[in-house]
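Aim 2 progress update. The chain analyzed this quarter is reproduced below.
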Amino acid sequence: MGLYNLRRSLFLVILVSTLFMSLTVTIEPAEHVYAYFHSKLGLEYYALNDAVLGLLLAFGLMLFGALIQLNTARKKELSSISERSALKALLDSLPIAISKLDKKHQLTLTNPRFEKIRHAIGEEAVANTAKTLLETGLTKKNQHSLELKQSYPQLNNTSEILIEWNLCQGDEDSYLMQGRDITQLEESYRQSHIAQQIINNTPVGVMVVNTNQEIEYVNRSFELITGYSTSDVKGQSPSILKSGYHGKDFYKAMNKTLIKEGMWQGEIRNRRKNGDIFLEWLSISSLKDAQGHITHSIGMFSEITAQEHVREKLHTLAYYDSLTSLANRTLFNDRLERLIKNNSKRTLCVVFIDLDDFKRINDSLGHDIGDQLLVTFAKRLQYSIRGSDTVARWGGDEFIIAIEVSESFEGISHFCNKQLQLLKAPFNLNGRELNVTASIGVSIYGEDAQTASDLIRNADIAMYQAKRQGKNRYEVFSSKLHKDISENIEIENRLRLAIRKQQIDVHFQPQVRTNKKHIIGFEALARWTDEELGNVSPQKFITVAENTGLIGDLSALILNKALEQFKPFHDADTNLLLSVNLSASQLQDDDLIPLLKKKISLYGIRPQQVKLEITEDIFISKIEKSIGITSELKKIGFKISLDDFGTGYSSLSYLKDFDIDELKIDRSFVINIEKSERNKAIITAMLVMAEILSIDCIVEGVETEKQLIELKSMGCNLYQGYFFYKPMPCNELELLFEQDLLLGVE
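Predicted structure tokens:
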């Protein structure tokens, strides 16, 4: 720029000199100039002509102009330097990182903020970012600005840094690259967004009011509780919610507390948009700025009516049965404890009621019908008691009642018979009519029980005794009953030990065909003689085993011993059959079939010579699984016998769905058969049905010749009973073979 000005100055000097010389010649100004220079300045000595004088004058004018121009240029240069210094100071102080990329895309200018970022993320990261920005920008025509957010791991820190880059087109193919650290900004935004979401989604209503008593913000819960939308209340006074229930003094006291303590909380009644009044718990706090001046008030509230509903619901769940709405165990125990503590002159009793065969109803008709039955029965119970009595659902199909009666035994008898009468009326459920019975147990305070737990336990024991006595009855707990329970506990403990030590014996009772008195096989029966208890009847220890879950282990032990001892008879006559009883738990066990296969393989016994006896109650639960297992057993070759037919839940569908080989008529139909025409008719019907279905039919419990004569007259030909043979150990059974008794069938 300076060289250009110098050239221009020289050109002007030449131009002015030439012009001046021309003027002096043509205009002849020499006289005036000569007079001034020679007379005033004393230059006559030099005898300068007009041309030289003009040249000198022009040069002087040029020099003067050059000095003025140089001064002006200097001022401009100083001003430019000042501007550059100010610009550099401005760039250095900017919070934005700035750099310039030249034509070769090299960084030629950076400010301290840019260097700080480069130091944090590294030279390579900056170069890669610049390359990415340039490549993206260059590939897009007419793209003058490009933005990019990039996260980087910091070199000397475990955290990451987030940079917002901007690339702008400069002059002459240069670019301006800007960067801004937005890590804290993004985190602040994220935290602010989370806080906003929390406030907006909290179940507590929130309202923010400024010092002009104008609503600035409400959250979603406020809208849901009050019915007002944000647009309805924004800019309005909080008094829009006033219900008119509280007077001026209430609000004066509220404001006074708020000014004095900075917060207020308490119950208040407000009005929804639809006009409904609701009760809320309100908390108001004052928000202040850095100088301590109040800027806003924030109110947070929740509807107390909803909380009360929740408390009532929790109380109901804690103390009442969800299905029947009767008291539950917790509430019953509390009330029973109070009755014991406030014992009156009347007799306090606990009555335990259990519906008979409820599991069969539940499994066969469905849980919906079962639930309806429980609800209906619960209502009947509630109608049958006084307000001072307590009835509760103990669990499942068990109910319990605490009552006070004046005459203990007469009052108890009257109350229990009343409950049994309640069940005589059929239950109509979904168009289905059901007849249900119950077993009831009663315990009396002060006789065999002094505490609530003893009363409940004894009533439970008495109830189970009622079931064992035939159901649809009540039993009152007594010392004898307690003795029986204790005896059962002792039997259970000794039985566990006997099973573990394999001290259960197997006896065999022959089964015969009467027309030739041939033994066709024998049933394996469990017998137990304990060193402390002596001989324990099968009915007693098998019942204990069923009630305590030992029946599966007991049955497995009997099966193993029976197969082992049957082996010699099996080898002697391939027509002989061994009958073995299967428990319900065994039939539902997935390991039953593998176990049977293993045992018959171990002892070399043909499955066709093993008859598995199962009772009708096995089919009540999981009937489809029972059908599947019995079908598999039949495929293997085992014979299936339906034991105690007619005493359980007899259904002709069993004979249709199950592939059985034999019906076993229970001994209860044989007793007094000579005098009971009904028993004769039932047995005759069973025999005819079995013949039509091509199923064998054997009668057990034959003990007299008269019974045999009657049975023969009805067409029976297969028997089992004491009249023929009693159960005997294996060694006695061997003697029958040694006596040349004709065995087997033709």
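The chain is about 50% helix and 25% strand. The two ends are 140 Å apart (CA to CA). These observations will guide the mutagenesis experiments scheduled for the next reporting period.
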